[in-house]
């Protein structure tokens, strides 16, 4: 599933804002390793989106359940 250019730009912007923001889903000061892992997953998703023009659905779904 490829995305429109405007959706791609918005997702990259939201991802970068999330990485820069001090507010995280899993804060680094509570659980340091998991806090870094959630940032890494977001960074990987942004990279995959820019590089391959699609989100890495294999992180969330197997091939049978791909939307």
Provide a concise account of the structure shown.
The chain has helices at residues 5-20, 32-52.
Report on the structure:
The chain is built from two helices and no strands. The chain has helices at residues 5-20, 32-52. The chain is mostly helical and 67 residues long. The radius of gyration is 13 Å and the shape is globular. The protein has one domain. The mean pLDDT is 79.
* C-alpha end-to-end distance: 8 Å
Number of strands: 0
Can you give the mean pLDDT?
A: 79
Structural class: mainly alpha
Number of domains: 1
Percent of residues in beta strands? Answer: under 5%
Helix content: 55-70%
General shape: globular
* SSE sequence, one letter per element: HH
Number of helices: 2
Assembly category: single chain
Based on CA atoms alone, the radius of gyration comes out at 13 Å
């Amino acid at each position: 599933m490829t995305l429109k250019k405007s959706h791609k730009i918005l997702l990259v912007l939201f991802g970068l804002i999330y990485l820069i923001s001090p507010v995280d889903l899993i804060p680094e000061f509570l659980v340091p390793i998991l806090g870094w892992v959630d940032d890494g997953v977001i960074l990987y998703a942004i990279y995959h989106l820019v590089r391959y023009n699609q989100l890495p659905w294999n992180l969330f779904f197997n091939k049978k359940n791909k939307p």
